């Protein structure tokens, strides 16, 4: 028996696409706004790190001193995704707002210094935000089921929706675990090698 049947994508492709557009669209918009708002201060973080490195000034960016474990990253991001999923009960209004605002803020951060933002975010961020797409899609499935129950007063199809939710939840957990590992163990090394810290 296949975990993911052939109809899984047909049932959910529109919701996955909408979630993808919301997540990555708000990241891109946030980056553009961050870039224009930065003005003369664009790239300050990269410049500050380079200046500190050239003049042997110790920064508080030491990787070993401020290391966060992969499990801490995973728990934090999974709790955020759980809140997004549960928001589906309230017709996904809070879920969409939560994702829009967090993606916009992350994009805004990247836009103020593309080099530092991408180096410190891109390695794990793409995988983490794909997991966010799964979480938001779960919220949309819950909302779709809720609307269907209100309209038809029937619970037909609830098993299929529950199966789809379980599949997306498993994918969310896998992607968040990979992203957490990369954020804890790979991203700091990339930042260190690029900026020499």
From TrEMBL:
The entry's keywords: Membrane, Transmembrane, Transmembrane helix
The organism encoding this protein is Methanobrevibacter thaueri
**Which Pfam families does the record match to this protein?**
SpoIIM
Q: Which residues form a coiled coil?
A: none
The record lists the membrane-crossing segments as: 15-36, 82-106, 126-144, 165-182
InterPro entries in UniProt: SpoIIM-like
What is the protein's name according to its record?
Answer: Stage II sporulation protein M
